[in-house]
Amino acid sequence: MRLYVDPVCPFAYLALRWLDEVAALRGFEVDVRIMSLAVLGEADPDREPESARGTESAWRPVRVGVAVGERLPEFMSRFGGLYHRDGVRGRDEVLRQVLAAMDLSSSLGAADDASFDDEVRRSHGEGMEPVGLDVGTPVIHVDDVAFFGPVLGAVPRGQDALDVFDGAVALAGAPGFCELKRTRSGGLSFK
């Protein structure tokens, strides 16, 4: 099972935590890969280019995600914990703290290194190809089924986590299925 996520998306962080729960209960690993809100935003002519956002650019965390390689799941979990759960602001500050905790401070330079962009785009394209370009993050691939979401406001635990997983995979695998949605209510819970 593969999970395509952007570190700056709170729903991606919640999906990672949910799938970690499912993986622990089912005895498999989550293959975490990069997708990019910056790449998605390029299709919107009314959106300010990410490059204009300086140290808050969504490009910076995904470049670092590529640079940390096999430690991407740990990077995503630590980044999400600080940025989303703990509310630490300043993406540069979060990157510094996360990389220091991982003993990878030398990887901070990747944030400004556009040579990582081809790999970001490759991974992003791989994740999006089976689901289309009009969705966001998270994107999940399970065997021959791929889908956007689910967009969760909290992490289901135990049997609830398994039920949501099994239901999402079954629904996404149904012939002709394309979307299920309802309006979000209430805040997000990162507990």
Q: How does this structure look, described?
A:
This is Disulfide bond formation protein DsbA. It holds the Pfam family Rv2466c-like. This protein has a 4-stranded mixed sheet with strand order 2-1-3-4, sandwiched between helices. Strand 1 (2-5), helix 1 (10-26) and strand 2 (31-34) form a beta-alpha-beta unit. It has one domain (2-173): Glutaredoxin. By secondary structure, it is α+β, with helices and mostly antiparallel strands. It has 7 helices and 4 strands; from the N terminus they run E-H-E-H-H-H-H-H-E-E-H. Helix 1 crosses helix 4 and helix 4 (72-85) crosses helix 5. The protein has helices spanning 10-26, 37-41, 59-67, 72-85, 91-101, 117-128, 158-173; strands at residues 2-5, 31-34, 139-142, 145-148.
CATH superfamily: Glutaredoxin
The coarse overall form would be globular
Q: What percent of residues are in strands?
A: 5-15%
Q: How do the SSEs run, as a string of H and E?
A: EHEHHHHHEEH
- Tally the beta strands: 4
Task: Determine the structural class based on helices, strands and strand pairing.
Answer: alpha+beta
Helix count, per DSSP?
Answer: 7
Largest sheet: 4 strands, mixed
Indicate the radius of gyration in whole angstroms: 16 Å
Distance N terminus to C terminus? 24 Å
> Percent range for helical residues?
40-55%
In CATH terms, what is the architecture?
A: 3-Layer(aba) Sandwich
**Major sheet: arrangement of strands:** 2-1-3-4
* Overall number of structural domains: 1
The CATH class assignment is Alpha Beta
Low-confidence stretches: none
How would you state the average pLDDT, rounded? 94
CATH fold category name? Glutaredoxin
InterPro entries: Rv2466c-like (IPR053977), Thioredoxin-like_sf (IPR036249)
Protein name: Disulfide bond formation protein DsbA
